[in-house]
Specification:
The chain is α/β, with parallel strands linked by helices and 364 residues long. It contains 11 helices and 14 strands. The strands form 4 sheets. The chain has a 7-stranded parallel beta sheet, sandwiched between helices. Helix 1 (28-39) links the parallel strand 1 (20-23) and strand 2. The chain binds NADP nicotinamide-adenine-dinucleotide phosphate (NAP). The site of NADP nicotinamide-adenine-dinucleotide phosphate (NAP) has 28 residues, from helix 1 and strand 8. Residues 23-24, 26-30, 48-49, 56, 78-80, 98-102, 104, 115, 139, 141, 213, 215-216, 227, 230-231 line the site of NADP nicotinamide-adenine-dinucleotide phosphate.
Amino acid sequence: MSHQIDTQTATGVSPADGPVAVTGASGYIGSWIVHDLMKQGYRVRACVRDTSKSEKVDHLLALNHTVLRGQVELFAADLFERGSYDGPFTDCCAVIHTGATVGYHNEPPQQVYDACFTEVRHVVESVKKAGTVKRFVYTSSFSAAWHHRPEGYVFTEYDWCDDNIERYKGAWSVENVANRRDIAYAMGKASTERMIYETSEEDGSLEAMAVLPVHVLGPLMCPNHDQPQSWQNNIKEMLQGRPFEKARGGRMLWNIVDVRDVAKAHRLCAESPAARNGSRYILGAADRSGELFTFQLQARLKELFPAIQEIGGEEMDDGKPVKKSFDSPRAYCLLARQELGLSTHPVNETLKATGDSYIRLGLL
Ligand SMILES: NC(=O)c1ccc[n+]([C@@H]2O[C@H](COP(=O)([O-])OP(=O)(O)OC[C@H]3O[C@@H](n4cnc5c(N)ncnc54)[C@H](OP(=O)(O)O)[C@@H]3O)[C@@H](O)[C@H]2O)c1
């Protein structure tokens, strides 16, 4: 049975309203979302593609044997399979959609775009079919807000990735998605945001909101979270004394948010009376202390892990960066703190917990 939202009295969900489904639940962020929901006492429907892959699900099932008050149950579902979310979403009060092909395994850009946008219609169809879902929380990305801006520009939730597409010199087009992973990802995330806000507005019975994380770091729950090319994997490589190679010369501004805070923000979106259809929340540093150039991050890791002999990072000469880094992206999780009441981990705690988890899991 579908319910209409009274915009005067709209409120979020609570554990008493029914289970919450999480797609991509086996992933780095998804797993912490499951953990956070269980801490609050929710029954969680964890959607993964293959429930028999122990390396992806054992850490989730183990949560049922901890002090966490909630429970987790596994469900098999795939974005590319229409109707596969019908079962797990039945009777759910909220759905948190975090599953996506991120491109960690060099998947073709078209596949990234389809998993980030085209196939999300299957998730939305199942949400509507359930008829009980009041909140749909989507893991978008800061990529959906980032666009070419001068150094020092502070991005906010008003920014969209297609704000000045002329800078792409005609390359920003659906036809070009197959050739450019960056366009595929950003366009996919932004298109999904717009689609879910419009669909929810038309539907009238649910509200959709999105979180837009920047560089997510923090503890890994299992070895499978060490995905190649992920930010956490880049930290591991630096702790192994290897250079940071994702950016030219290793020069980048790291805008760091803790994975546990990202998880909590998803739940707060589902619960908060302040979040409304169309609300979007950038999840980056709380303030400038969480924004570090690679050479600063390198120095911080040295302080936090004094036993490690050599820590890699950017190109240095005589203890100084060889070149100046481009001062971007600056962005903060101010709105999430103000509207959702999100509290955040200090960056040193996040960095320490990241490295410690690699050591604990025997990956370093
Ligand atoms: N990490 C970051 O810094 C960051 C920043 C901004 C946004 N994000 C977004 O956050 C979300 C989670 O990212 P993550 O870093 O946690 O990545 P992740 O560890 O790779 O998790 C993504 C999960 O999505 C699932 N998935 C992949 N393809 C799927 C498909 N076809 N159908 C259903 N599920 C599928 C996978 O689970 P199974 O293999 O078990 O199905 C995987 O565990 C993504 O939407 C990503 O775009 C991440």
